[in-house]
């Protein structure tokens, strides 16, 4: 299908006594194709071989992907359930003993029942993640509602993709992270990339990005830091963290003023133009420059290039989304495409760089507090009925909507929530305002954590269940294009570890809810029920059978039935998903970050990733190559700022905010704004930068403002006497 | 069809996937044989790989008193033969780019062998397979020829100016891939 100029027929190298299992990387939304090398005598994974025949990434992988296979048989794997009897040791690695699954299940069932009898159904909660297959994400939602009967389920996508989801829903009426396949990227004429450190977070997009410039196309990058992609951009819009909305409004104003609006498209296919045009008038280049700190000429030139480009793609990531106006930022950048009509055709559109492997699929199928499979709403009686029909429960049995991820911790603190089943996530590192979050986890009466390593969050658990890595199970994942792909099993689960779906089926049986789960014997069984549960929803996966995924190199949703090949390009018929078929151009008043710098805290702190680590680092910090490359966090400081604080490269300093503090090694670089400091967030315990971040939530997506808060530096070391 | 390693240095993002991949080649004992440098560390994030260029008349092999460094029929300059290498480290000094590495425990030199177990059968080297930016590519001479806007004025492929070393099997895009690109609009 989408084989392009980068695709080459190449045979793989195979060694004797070895077979290759075609699959995808365990980590980010790129979901690069890879082959796992399996020894046919020991049946163990022993290495990686590029997957040249995967059309999106043609064999390419970042260093995380190259070394991903080392997770499976790692010495830190949990091989048996662990129980901790002494609750006073919560928050440490101490006091765990190995136990049988029987004992662990008995204890969990007894504690869960006890809590629910005493404090009601909603005293339990489920906190999950989207670095796992659609089938697991689906079943987790069902487990919470049907096996536990609680309203409190939410997931780590609230710290990742929820603003993109909210923005797309508002603008288009549908939330598919990319309106076009990645194989279009290198063929466009202009890429406008905002708040994405693409080269480090989605490296295998880069050969397509560079190819645009090689063809004579343009690259515009908005980022407070001169990241590796910004370094080669035609225009680098070096804005202050948290000011994207002003920048997008300013550029939209210039596009309209200079005649780049596609009036025909706007009239026929959108709502909201006039109102938005009025609102953005205020955002003159001068005013936009004042708010964002970006030079006027750059703003003007960026608008000119985007306006003139025959085809252009607007792309963004957590930089714009992890703000307390993340949803507005997304809609504001989408506005650029809607007003100029650069959408609804090939080589032009809008995309977000999905962070987690299944950040797209995992948010569609009922792990979110208010959603049910197929992107159905739990507040819509018709939707509830449709899902009840598949699950075999009555609408009265369906719990109502819960609260968002961070708000669940607030309820733990208040003792509204007393029990937690945590899986596929490590909020003790990844949540904002960690002093509070860790205290809330300590406050729980009973906590279960399923993971394949003892994560920082597992340190708060009473019971830890050993789950499997991605390579020991099978299922589907939806990559950042909206393409449903297949993860294949390369090895049997090691030790006594089990896939999460199996743990849920067995736990449901212990909880007396077996009749809703016992028919699920294999991952394929879960997949078949899952596809059925999405049927008729707008994220319809019904036609995306494993067979079709294999034959077609993936299937883009929506895919309604056997005959439907899927939908690589969205909106080609210029029909959007709002009831009147129109997209919404949004008038969005500017708001500054929740916490602006002041005299006490004069710096802007922003956080992000490095290429060597994935999310909370629970996986990548254990891989020798990745650990060697980046063993600890650091704080990036501009040389002028360093001079002011009298601090040097490699010196340890105290970085602090109103919420917390940490000691960080200074990395001096001119590739950052003078008013901004940056710290990567992949590290645990006292090294977690999220001890400092702010939990100011977006009113719609409930996304915390990881990307901007006010901070101060204090020098620790005394100057050496010369 | 003969293929070569071809480098477009400005594409490099410093991800060091090429290093990770090099540790994965057969017979590499999980040690990488290539390098990635921060070009201007306190200033910007520019990086570049430093690879063995598989010289046609390699100084490393010439300097070896024990003939431990063999040249494969594909032109790949191989890692030292375990049974021949005497650990004198001449090659590490002779190579103009400091490519050969030295294992003091085994008293043995090791260097890039152009993934000979792959490239002898026309399979791309690990580093060029995974490189996410196409800084490292595995191309036919014809494909390289098609990039001819990147040739130097004198029509020659050289590894640096002025010449440090003669003809190489690995080709580098000089003066740079964006030189002379005309903008679309
Ligand atoms: S982490 Fe992302 S970019 Fe890197 S190999 Fe895995 S899927 Fe590809
Ligand atoms: S893999 Fe490619 S982009 Fe990454 S460091 Fe190596 S040469 Fe540079
Ligand atoms: S670059 Fe150095 S190590 Fe490689 S062949 Fe030439 S002289 Fe030998
Ligand atoms: S060609 Fe092979 S041996 Fe040489 S640097 Fe690349 S991966 Fe290493």
TrEMBL record, chain A:
A Pfam family that the UniProt record links to this protein: Molydop_binding
GO cellular component term, pick one: membrane
Keyword Glycosyltransferase: no
UniProt-listed SUPFAM superfamilies: ADC-like (SSF50692), Formate dehydrogenase/DMSO reductase, domains 1-3 (SSF53706)
Protein's UniProt keywords contain DNA-binding: no
UniProt GO MF annotations: 4 iron, 4 sulfur cluster binding; metal ion binding; molybdopterin cofactor binding; NADH dehydrogenase activity
Record-annotated 4Fe-4S Mo/W bis-MGD-type domain positions: 18-76
Record's keyword terms, sorted: 4Fe-4S, Iron, Iron-sulfur, Metal-binding
Cofactors demanded by this protein: Mo-bis(molybdopterin guanine dinucleotide)
InterPro entries (alphabetical): Asp_de-COase-like_dom_sf (IPR009010), MoPterin_dinucl-bd_dom (IPR006657), Mopterin_OxRdtase (IPR006656), Mopterin_OxRdtase_4Fe-4S_dom (IPR006963), Prok_molybdopt-oxidoreductase (IPR050123)
Biological-process GO terms, alphabetical: respiratory electron transport chain
Protein name: Nitrite reductase
UniProtKB/TrEMBL annotation, chain B:
Ranges that cross the membrane: none
Domain 4Fe-4S ferredoxin-type: 3-33, 39-74, 76-105
Pfam families: Fer4_11
Molecular-function GO terms, alphabetical: 4 iron, 4 sulfur cluster binding; metal ion binding
Record key words, sorted: 4Fe-4S, Iron, Iron-sulfur, Metal-binding
InterPro entries: 4Fe4S_Fe-S-bd, 4Fe4S_Fe_S_CS, ET_IronSulfur_Cluster-Binding
Keyword Iron: yes
Entry superkingdom: Bacteria
Record keyword Metal-binding present: yes
Protein name: Electron transfer flavoprotein
Origin species: Pseudobacillus wudalianchiensis
Phylogenetic lineage: Bacteria, Bacillati, Bacillota, Bacilli, Bacillales
